[in-house]
Every structure is written in structure tokens, then in C-alpha cells.
């Protein structure tokens, strides 16, 4: 996710301090972006804002009905032979998006061109607003898992694509591996807030533990 030019990026890790993040410093998303802009020598602009309940529930509801209508939960994802764990995750993400994209009624998932965070954006069907949307796939959700999940490390793409207020949505697709089959088990939406805790390690990631204990809205569908 790092840019080819410029100073080394600050990486954001969402998760409590642990052996896996022994070299990280705990912060919040709001403080991280403030420090990152200083590091990048870019004038300050607010890169994360509070989600309003009036937005959280409609998005969660639209995802819920799209997941139900598409039948993607419980569906078997075709996985290429010899795939690595990272490749399996990418295939699960692509399968999920391709199957719910046409079922969303109030929003749509769009590409977010360029390297770095976010991979995609969630756009209103009837308005002009759009939100950073990051997808992660995992073989299980463990609230005590403190392994870091890199989220963002440079503000360039975010600054060039979105204008304040910027609301971030992290979507985690949980899948089960049973023999040779890969099935989508559940989907978690984390509506990241400025106060959401993260670990800073010249990169950015999340863990299941911090998302599970976070005070931001979330929905498991």
C-alpha cells in the first residue's frame, strides 16, 4: 500500500498491543491521520469523521438484504488449486462482491483506482456521497486474536479520491474451510470511527480483538 515516492509510510494496525504488534504504538485513527499528514508534510485535512446512526443502519440493512437475496452466505466459493491463504482470501473477496453487487438497492460497490487504501468505495445510488470501503477475508473470527491486519499506510489515495467528511467502512468476510470446500459463513461490518484504536508501526492493520471490543457500530450478518 505504500507509495513509490515520499517518506516511509506510517502503517496503521487495529488491535491491542501484543507479541504480534510488539513494535507498535497504540493510537486512534484520528490521531494517526493527523500524525501521518505531518509525516507526509501535507497540510492538515480531516481524513476520518464520525459515522451517524442515520447512515450506519441503512448501509447495514442494504448489505443484509443483498446477502440474503444473493444466497452468498453459505455458498461454496470455487478456489483455484494450490492457492495460498492470501490468494484464497482474495478469491473470497471477489466472489462476495460479484454476488452482492447487483443485489444492493441503495448503494453500489465501485472500484477505487490506484495503489493503496482503500481498495474499493461504497457509493450512494441516488446521491453523490461515497465512502472508503476496505474488504478483508479471514478463515475465522476470533475476538481474542491480536494478529495485526494491515489497513492503511499512506494518505495520498484517500486525499485524492475523497473529500471530508470521510467515513470508513471495513467489511470482513468470514469463511469456513471444510475439506476441499470453502464456504462464506458470515460478514462483519465495522464502521470505523475517529476514536477507533489502532496500532502504529509505520503501517496500518486491524485485529479481530480490537474490532470486537471497539466502541464503533458493527453488524454481523
Question: How does this structure look, described?
Answer:
The chain has helices at residues 29-40, 53-70, 85-100, 156-161, 208-213; strands at 12-13, 25-28, 107-111, 120-124, 130-138, 150-152, 168-178, 181-192, 197-200, 218-220. With 221 residues, the protein is an alpha+beta fold. The protein has one domain. The strands form 3 sheets. A 6-stranded mixed β-sheet has the order 3-4-5-7-8-10. The chain has a two-stranded antiparallel sheet with strand order 1-6. A two-stranded antiparallel ribbon has the order 2-9. Residues 1-9 and 15-21 have low confidence and may be disordered.
Terminal CA distance: 29 Å
Strand order in the sheet with the most strands? 3-4-5-7-8-10
Which spans of ≥5 residues are poorly predicted at pLDDT below 50?
1-9, 15-21
Radius of gyration: 17 Å
Largest sheet: 6 strands, mixed
- Strand residues, percent: 25-35%
The secondary-structure class comes to alpha+beta
The count of DSSP E runs of length 2 or more, i.e. the number of strands, is 10
Helical coverage, percent range: 25-40%
Q: How many helices?
A: 5
Amino acid at each position: 500500500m505504500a507509495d513509490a515516492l515520499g517518506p516511509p509510510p506510517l502503517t496503521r494496525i487495529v488491535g491491542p498491543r501484543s507479541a504480534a504488534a510488539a513494535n507498535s504504538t497504540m493510537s486512534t485513527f484520528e490521531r494517526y491521520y493527523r500524525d501521518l499528514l505531518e509525516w507526509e508534510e501535507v497540510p492538515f485535512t480531516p481524513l476520518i469523521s464520525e459515522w451517524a446512526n442515520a447512515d450506519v443502519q441503512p448501509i447495514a440493512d442494504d448489505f443484509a438484504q443483498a446477502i440474503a437475496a444473493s444466497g452468498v452466505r453459505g455458498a461454496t466459493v470455487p478456489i483455484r488449486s494450490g492457492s495460498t491463504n492470501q490468494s484464497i482470501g482474495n478469491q473470497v473477496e471477489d466472489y462476495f462482491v460479484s454476488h452482492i453487487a447487483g443485489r444492493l438497492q441503495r448503494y453500489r460497490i465501485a472500484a477505487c483506482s490506484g495503489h493503496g487504501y482503500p481498495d474499493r468505495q461504497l457509493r450512494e445510488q441516488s446521491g453523490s456521497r461515497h465512502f472508503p470501503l476496505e474488504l478483508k477475508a479471514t478463515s475465522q473470527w476470533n475476538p481474542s486474536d491480536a494478529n495485526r491486519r494491515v489497513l492503511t499506510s499512506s494518505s495520498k489515495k484517500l486525499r485524492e479520491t475523497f473529500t471530508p467528511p470521510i467515513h470508513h467502512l471495513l467489511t470482513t468476510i468470514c469463511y469456513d474451510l471444510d475439506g476441499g470446500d470453502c464456504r462464506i459463513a458470515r460478514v462483519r461490518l465495522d464502521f470505523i470511527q475517529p476514536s477507533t484504536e489502532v496500532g502504529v508501526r509505520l503501517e496500518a492493520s486491524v485485529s479481530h480483538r480490537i474490532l470486537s471490543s471497539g466502541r464503533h457500530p458493527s453488524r454481523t450478518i
